[in-house]
Amino acid sequence: MTTESKPIAIEAAKLTKIYGSGNTEVVAMRDASMQVAQGEVVALLGPSGSGKSTFLTAVGLINPPTSGQITIGDKLVLDGATAHANLRSFRRRHIGFIFQKSNLIPFLTAVENVQIAMQLNGQSKRASYRRAMELLDYLGVADRAANYPSMLSGGQQQRIAVARSLANSPSVILADEPTAALDGQRGRQVMELFAKVAHEQGAGVIVVTHDHRSLDVFDTTYEMEDGILNRTKTTTMEVSK
Ligand SMILES: Nc1ncnc2c1ncn2[C@@H]1O[C@H](COP(=O)(O)OP(=O)(O)OP(=O)(O)O)[C@@H](O)[C@H]1O
């Protein structure tokens, strides 16, 4: 897939992040640029401390860069630390997050965990229930709708978290080591879900991962080292199985 042929979902241009100052200054990311097309699923690799989370949280509008621009769809949202939108509401409407652990709310059922994301955006209980059930069905966990998270396996919890991240039809999905707590096969299933979501719903997806076994699922891989981001060739062409 080339980013030229499809509209851009995410454009990060020359992102630099400096933590601290003077003796304690850390340049966690330097001139990091990435374009993700709608429908493209990107793996972000790199050793511990290389700047992956710094990049992901910048693109996710959680941790603004010191300099550089972030454009989501056709909207320039961040120019350095200067916001051109209300970041909180922009994030809620356009960006879905998935973390290493599913972070489901323990006292809500699976379906309620998905509904809450829509209700926070003003949707009615009834409409949000309908969509939540559709999403759980799409992700193959509709039969678990009434269960509390503690009754679900790690893989099922991650599927609910993916459903929750899709609730508001985000144009961008960002996942930080979403399969770290899963075994190889379940991890792969979750990665395949990201590819399905990207391809079928047209979202731009970035997944930080250490799991090299599932790289063939991704359209593109990037590697971060010492805060420098490099695009590596598409894995489907590079990885021989
Ligand atoms: N809030 C902070 N203040 C100071 N330095 C920070 C802060 N957050 C991260 N760093 C530093 O920035 C660098 C990049 O960290 P980051 O968490 O982005 O790496 P990472 O690739 O996500 O690592 P991991 O794979 O271990 O999660 C590291 O040197 C880290 O110590």
UniProtKB/TrEMBL annotation:
InterPro entries: AAA+_ATPase (IPR003593), ABC_transporter-like_ATP-bd (IPR003439), ABC_transporter-like_CS (IPR017871), ABC_transpr_LolD-like (IPR015854), MacB-like_ATP-bd (IPR017911), P-loop_NTPase (IPR027417). It comes from the Bacteria. One of its GO terms (molecular function) is transmembrane transporter activity. Keywords: ATP-binding, Hydrolase, Lipoprotein, Nucleotide-binding, Transport. Residues 10-241 form the ABC transporter domain. Its EC number is 3.6.3.-. SMART domains: AAA. Signal peptide: none annotated. Pfam families: ABC_tran. GO terms for cellular component: plasma membrane. PANTHER family: ABC TRANSPORTER ABCH.1 (PTHR24220:SF86), IMPORT ATP-BINDING PROTEIN (PTHR24220). This is Lipoprotein-releasing system ATP-binding protein LolD. It comes from Rubripirellula reticaptiva. The gene is lolD_5.
